[in-house]
Write a structure and sequence with these properties.
Rossmann fold; 4-stranded parallel beta sheet; binds 4-nitrophenyl phosphate
């Protein structure tokens, strides 16, 4: 985790995960984070959603290769359907986590300036300070999806630990 005491000032009541298509990376973060929140008994206090900066896959289930990877970890993504980012998301969510740098700049380009502080890179919460972007697995093989699943799982664990620490501070 980078600069844990300066990254967020208070516990977010809502988090939106964003990638390009909302069928691989962000629905995985959505499902994994939801699963971990339930285990930590924090699920009633934080609203979770995911969306894509593109609208090509709206209404679709997460990619079958991504669902297979999540299933291997005991996590179902079957309840998630792709949607595009809406302008209202910038008002509605406290924290908006971009899965890669291109998602980050696409979000910054459409977000009103006074709300841009809500947008962060998901991997800001990773232990690996050198990592900025969760790789897009869409045009690769199953190993790429499995790698994404592991990276997202450990980063979500860090994010939960960080949120718990904020809870303790309040
Ligand atoms: P995601 O992956 O942004 O993690 O959902 C992608 C899904 C679809 C495409 C690109 C990335 N696509 O080009 O259709």
């Amino acid at each position: 985790m980078r600069s844990p005491d300066t990254t967020l000032e208070k516990k977010p009541a809502s988090i939106l995960f964003v990638c390009l298509g909302n069928i691989c990376r962000s629905p995985t973060a959505h499902g994994v984070f939801e699963h971990q929140l339930k285990k930590a008994d924090l699920h009633t206090s934080i609203r979770i959603d995911s969306a894509g900066t593109g609208a090509y896959h709206v209404g679709e289930l997460p990619d079958s290769r991504m669902r297979a990877s999540a299933r291997q970890h005991g996590i179902s993504l079957e309840h998630i359907r792709a949607r595009a980012v809406h302008e209202s998301d910038f008002e509605e969510f406290d924290l908006i986590l971009a899965m890669d740098e291109s998602n980050f700049s696409d979000l910054m380009a459409i977000c009103p300036e006074h709300l841009q502080h809500k947008i962060r890179l998901f991997l800001d919460f990773s232990r690996h300070a050198e990592l900025q972007s969760v790789p897009d697995p869409y045009f690769g093989d199953q190993d790429g999806f499995d790698h994404v699943m592991r990276l997202i799982t450990e980063t979500c664990e860090n994010l939960i630990a960080y949120i718990r620490m904020l809870n303790d501070k309040i």
